[in-house]
Amino acid sequence: MAKPVKVKVTISHKGTDTDYTLRQGLGLQALAAAAKTPIEFDCRAADCGICIVRVQKNPENLSEPTTEERDFLKAMRADPDERLACQCRVMGDVELLVDEY
Predict the structure, then answer these.
(1) What's the confidence (pLDDT) of residue 2?
(2) Which CATH number covers residue 38?
(3) pTM value surpassing 0.85
(4) Considering its fold, how many domains does the chain have in total?
(5) CB-CB neighbours of 17 under 10 Å
(6) Could you tell me how far CA 82 lies from the centroid of its own chain?
(7) Residues 69, 48: Cα–Cα separation, whole Å
(8) Residue 18 has pLDDT above 80, yes or no
(9) Which residue of 25, 30, 75, 99 has the fewest C-beta atoms within 10 A of its own C-beta?
(10) What dihedral do alpha carbons 77, 50, 56, 22 form, nearest 10°?
């Protein structure tokens, strides 16, 4: 059996960068369940926006936005580099910024 591929997720929050390791293809919700991250989750279904993150590097390493995520971000007038963490699967190394709102 092939060994699972690990990817690095770097999260910047309050001026500090923290690196996390995640199995390729898992979502950011899985990361938050396994490690203490500054990403907040509530609805987990692209309905509330509490989990919004800004992708600083390698946006191509996240899964394509779902229809629900695209619609929600459009309604929020989100910036092009913003994503809903509850909808993202990580396919490669990525750097995120979690702002305080």
Answers:
(1) 80
(2) 3.10.20.30
(3) yes
(4) 1
(5) 11
(6) 9
(7) 10
(8) yes
(9) 75
(10) -140
| Amino acid 101: pLDDT | 58
Percentages of the chain per state (helix, strand, coil), in multiples of 5: 25, 35, 45
Token code pair at residue 90: 């990580």
Q: Where are the beta strands (DSSP E) in the chain?
A: 6-13, 16-23, 52-57, 82-84, 94-97
> Token pair of 38, please?
């500054």
Tell me the three state secondary structure of residue 3.
coil
Residue 1 resides in a domain: no
For residue 57, give its domain range: 6-97
Residues 22-75 pLDDT 10s: 999 999 999 999 999 999 999 989 999 999 999 999 999 999 999 999 999 999
**SS3 label, residue 54:** strand
